[in-house]
Amino acid sequence: MSQNPIIDTHTHLCDPTFDTDRAEVLERAQKIGITKIISVSENSVDARKNLELAQQFPIFKPAAGLFPTNLDLNSAQELIDFIRDTKDKWIAIGEVGLDFWAVQDEKDREIQKEIFGQFVDLAIKLKLPLNVHSRSASRQVIELLLKKGARKVQLHAFDGRASSAAPAVEAGYYFSVPPSTARSAQKQKLFKQIPLANMLVETDSPMLGAVPNERNEPANILISIDEIARIKQLPADIIRQVVYENTLKLYSKKILE
Ligand SMILES: [Zn+2]
C-alpha cells in the first residue's frame, strides 16, 4: 500500500544552522515521504532568504511574518509593505502571534497585540492562512483571531489547555503537532482532546525536537505522526492520510505547486 505524502507545516529551515547541510537535510526529509515544507520567517531577513531558498529548492513553501518578540512598529510596517508587494510568493503569514512568556510588560504586550492584529488584517486581505505562535497567551491569541474574523488559521505548538483551545476547534482552526509532544505531558493531554480533523504535523526545525537541545529536522516528523497515532489509538497510515487532507484544506492545492 502506498502511503500518503507528508507536509511539514512549520519549520525555520532558513535558520543559519542549516546553511552547511541544507541539501542533505532536505534529502532525508524526502526519503521519508515529505513533499513540501513550510519555512516561516521571523523578520524581513528571513523572509528574503526563504524566497531565495524557494527558488533553489522546490520543496520549500515560504511564509513571511514577524516573530512576536519583535516590538518595533516600523519593522512591522516595512515587512507588511514588502509582503504586499510580493504577495503571490507566500503560502502563509507567519510566524506571527503573541508571546506573553517572553514579553511581560503590559505596555509591550499592547504593542505586541497591535502588531499581531496588523498581520491578521493583512492575512485576511491577502486571503492567506496564518501560521501562529502563542506562548502563555493562548486565550488572547484565539480571542484576537476570532474578533478579527480570521478563518484560515494554524496554531503552532499550542501551549494552552483544551478548554482554551475549544473556541478555536469550533472555528475550524488547526493545531500542528511537533515531535516534542513525545516529551510533553501538556501537549499529550491537549492533543487527546483536539479532534483529528483539526490536526496538522510540524517539526519547528531546528527547535522542538523529541530530544531537548538537539537540532531538529523535518525527517523527525514521523515522531509527530507516531505520537498522534498513539494518542488517538489509530494506525499511523490513517493519521498520515488525515493530516495530509487537513493540510490541503487549510493551505489549498496551492501548497502542491
Ligand atoms: Zn517556529
Write down the secondary-structure element order: EHEHEHEHEHEHEHEHH
Ligand inventory reads: zinc ion
What is the CATH architecture annotation? Alpha-Beta Barrel
Rg is 17 Å
Oligomer: single chain
Give the CATH superfamily. Metal-dependent hydrolases
How many DSSP H or I helices? 9
The rounded distance between the terminal residues' Cα atoms is: 25 Å
Number-wise, the strands total 8
Mean of all residue-level pLDDT scores: 96
Walk me through the structure.
- There is one protein chain.
- This protein is an alpha/beta fold.
- The protein has a single domain, classed as Metal-dependent hydrolases (TIM Barrel).
- It is 44% helix and 16% strand.
- The protein contains 9 helices and 8 strands.
- An 8-stranded parallel β-sheet has the order 1-2-3-4-5-6-7-8, with helices on both faces.
- Helix 5 runs parallel beside helix 6 and helix 8 packs across helix 9.
- The longest helix has 21 residues.
- The radius of gyration is 17 Å and the shape is globular.
- The mean pLDDT is 96.
- The structure holds zinc ion.
Write a compact overview of the structure shown:
This protein is α/β, with parallel strands linked by helices. Helices cover 44% and strands 16% of the residues.
